[in-house]
Amino acid sequence: MDQHQRGSKCRPVSKTTTRTPTNSLVPTVDKVHECLGVDFSWNLDWIVESYPFAIHGSGSRVNPGYHLLSVDVAASSIRVRSNRCTGSRGANSTGCASCAGLGPSIAVVQGWAQESPGKKPSGRLSHKQLAKKISGLYKQLQSERLKTPSLHLNPRKYCWTLSGVFGKGLYAQIWHKNKTGYSNLKIIFGLPRLLSTAKKEGWGASKTTEQANLAIRGLYHPCNYTDLDKDLAILAYEYGGDALLHALHRSPFAFPTRFTIADLRRSSSLSITVGPVKMMDLLRNIEILFKDIPVGEEGRILHTLSQDEIAGDGRPCYLDGTDEIAGLCEHANTELDTLKMGSDLTAVHAAAKAVREGRVHVGKEFSVAAIARHSSRDYGAKPVLLMATCKQNSWQENAKILQMISTAWKLSPYGEILHGPIPAFASDGDPKRKAALYLLCMHRKVKPGDALYPHIAGLRGLNLFTSEDFATMEFDPKHSWKRIRKTFCSKEGLLANGVVVNKNLLAQWLERLSSHDWSGQSIHALLNPKDPQHVPSTVKLLTLIGDLRFLDASNFTPAEANTHRALCILGEMFEALLDPFINPNLSLSQEIIQLVKFAHLSCALYLKHGSAFMPPQLYGDLQCLVKSAIFKIAHSKVLNPSLKVFLCLLGDDVLEILFGRSRMIGGHAPNMAIDELRRRFGSALRIDEIFTRRPHLEKLAHRLSLGRSRDVDHLSPRNFIGDLTASSCDIQACYDEGVEQAVEFLKRYGYEIDFNALFSKPDFDLMRPNGGKYPGVSKEVDRSLDEDVAVPDAADSDGVGLSPAEILRFDGAATLAAETAACSAAQPHSVWMKLDTDDDRKVAHKKSILRTLMDPTLDIEHAKSHDRLLRIRCYSIGGEKWDRAASKIHDKTASDHLLKLEGLFATLVAVNKTQVALAILHCTVIKSLATHPPTYLDAAPTAELNLPDSRYEVSGQILSLVPFIDQSNTLSWAWSTKFIGFESAKAKHANSNSAALQRHLSICVNGRLALPLLTPEVMPARALLDDLAADVLPDAAEAVESTWIFSNSQLDVMKSTLLARGQQEEIRIQIPVYGPVKEGGKFPYETSLDTAINSEWIQVGIYIPLSTVHNCPEPEGWTP
Description:
Blueprint: H1 2-5, E1 38-41, H2 47-50, E2 66-72, E3 77-82, H3 97-100, H4 103-114, H5 127-147, H6 155-166, H7 168-174, E4 175-177, E5 183-185, H8 191-201, H9 205-216, H10 227-249, H11 262-265, H12 279-290, E6 303-311, E7 317-319, E8 324-326, H13 332-335, H14 346-357, E9 365-373, E10 381-389, H15 395-411, H16 416-419, E11 424-427, H17 431-441, E12 444-445, H18 453-456, E13 465-466, E14 472-475, H19 477-488, E15 494-496, E16 499-501, H20 503-510, H21 520-527, H22 535-547, H23 558-582, H24 588-609, H25 616-639, H26 653-665, H27 674-693, H28 731-748, H29 755-759, H30 804-808, H31 812-824, E17 832-834, E18 843-845, H32 846-853, H33 868-872, E19 898-900, E20 904-911, E21 915-928, E22 935-937, E23 939-941, H34 942-945, E24 952-965, E25 971-979, E26 981-982, H35 994-997, E27 1003-1006, E28 1011-1013, E29 1017-1020, H36 1021-1024, H37 1036-1039, E30 1042-1047, H38 1048-1062, H39 1065-1068, E31 1073-1074, E32 1077-1079, E33 1103-1105
Parallel strand pairs: 6-11, 11-14, 20-31
Antiparallel strand pairs: 1-3, 2-3, 4-5, 6-9, 7-8, 9-10, 12-13, 15-16, 17-18, 19-23, 20-21, 20-28, 21-22, 21-24, 21-33, 24-25, 24-27, 25-30, 26-32, 29-30
């Protein structure tokens, strides 16, 4: 089994093998498993060819539920071990009860082996099935070659084929020899359409030859374009413009002209919101986008409302349809009397003055709200709201906008009535929008009598609060994954099992994965991406953390073993989070089991470590994602149980794709004014329609791909092959299974938690593990976001005049009636305006007037190219630079003269400003200040570390040590597998940032204060139980195989050495100062009276008061 877990190859078997102990691969009894597995018969053909061995490969995505231990070819049997093997043997069996109950699983695999290969994934096929599949593909390839060999490979043969159809006269006209004697094929423009026309019209050889000659000379253009021709022409025009389409029209492909596709591109323009959001604009956009969408056989389906911002070029524009100034921010409605241009320059001058005074802003971004269908087809985002924004509005205003869109969808005859409800509001995690979503989606609890209640009532721990219409909020999973990576790469890192996991630690552990050909640069690029939005590298990093679980831990030091346990917990958790989105073979039930397992694993870690585990906002977003997935299945069961649920459509990823297409259409000018954004959205929607019909034409962005291998592109609904129908998923059973798997895994790593007891308390659930307020809207600084992202304040409502009750009671019908009455009184207008000159006949277009008067560079001399710097500016690509020299700084230094990451060192720590105590630390970071910016190292020479002008800083976690008397009656100290955490030295004024909330688990000191321990003694943890009280080291034997021990004399020598250094004032002032101990054990290290030690000890501390730093007496009452 260990060979399979490490990805090693099993010993080969031969066809002549007999069932004897010498040739049957019977596993040996290891330290963990007494269970030898159970034998099962394989009742098919020769087992070597009929058994699907690929399902047990290291890269397999199929989970049969058991491990293959051995194969007996002669007896046609296999020996297997269950994934849930208890390790014990039954009285009359070689295996445990779990292994003995694998009969149904074996039957499922036998069913796979009997299926026709068809389009089944290769990773689930046997050798016999693969051979059959390859044979079928080869025959298909041969048949395709027979159809069109001469079209591309042999021009002369192609002409002979034509001559057989139309006569040799056509061949003679097309084929000729030039002066050099080489044969060439004349270019016939639109040849497929010419031949199609010839067949349709019944042309003979002479007529076909005549038309072919005209086509060669460019005098005949066959115009019987197919739908594919028109789709390709539209794509060429939208992406490359008129110039590209003209070139393709004049090429041998003879694409249609832009006039031919004009009717296909013609569509109604979306309404742009100017001033406050209007119900009329929303209803009109909904009608334009959803009126012509047919209701398929599945009937009404679910939809998702998402909102995000896209960058603009900060330029106002004129809307000739409404005579309005567009592109100004939300404040224009209150700061300006009117946004209509009118018949004179008054309105334009007022707008320009307000912008220059800063009362109104030109929107640098555009807020877009879109509705997307939850379906396997036509699931692209359809924008129903376009408005400029300065992103200085309050979260209450944002909540009102979302409420208006939801109401408009319910009122529109082309919305919920025709297509189905909106049960989810999606976002990328923007703090202001998040506060709005919590207001809208967390104010009504699902109660008995509600349609959803029977499906979710028994899910203990699931938060049951929704909107008035039972809608939930969901945050894009890709954004959450990127925020997890940013948390890893932050200064504080991520705390798990008492271990601070940051990018320096991960770099050391990733090098141990032998299955990857690592280089220092590749690991650095993975942890310091130049493009922080690159999703594949994020997925790769999180999956590699999961691969760390399978490292051989037999030779780990105690600290390495403890760190590996923390990485195993994180790896299991991240695998449960990623698999439902990147494994297309999973069924809906398996996806929900994984997500529920993740939710409970992350809940357990958050309960133990709080925000030091991960930012509370990120924790809340991930829990919302799991909740929304479960609710989406419940909504589907209520609406139509036969509907499919696609977890890959959770979040606002479809809106991001719309943004990407609209920016790509702009080419070298990706930013745009809002009227140009409207035009590009129209083009993007047409492109989306074509790609819906012809998905093979779409080239998706590499940065959005979601595969664990290069051949898996961006996963869309059509890629998932498992059973995803809502009726196939028993929500209660899947939820219980996920909880059970999480609890079993946590028990293996020493976490004892009763989720049923925890969630039986009022106001306790997965989104509120500590009860009370939701962590998702915490005011703490979110270290998973950029530093310039502000957390909204609940009191941020100055000038808004909106209360939550007013937002929730929004009357859409009354608002629509008022807008209709005001619109009916609108006056006609002209796009021309008379200028204030002596010549009354001089007029100008309002678009030109607005562009001139709103030009921010109006006061700069026009003769100069004042925008040159704007045109040539560029930005750094981002990411930290890889220092090649840093990785080789210790190549020539002996290993025993280096302080390495994961090593130990001693230092001095001041506690409560009254004591300076010796502390033993586990090294987590080594930083060199000799470069700018600082360089993070894997190791540092001890000689350089302790120089008087040392430019090193070393960080680590303080080991919690417990005293014991060994067999020689000598006092020693053992690591209890825990780390010491402190309160802040100024608890009354402590900040609420994540560093403070980590309770100073990581200590940073100057290199002069770091004394490396190069050869610490390791002792088996079980042996300590003979010398320690049962409550002193309760988990040592079960948690780790070994731990570190230190003699008291060794600590005394290190204390004396460090105190001698501390006599220098410049060293002494660098001793870190902390408050009282918060967790982990006793500090300073001391003994206490304990009868289990069989001796009486008075309190002795390996520390000295600050007042006696220069005088270092031995602690009173202590005799080594």
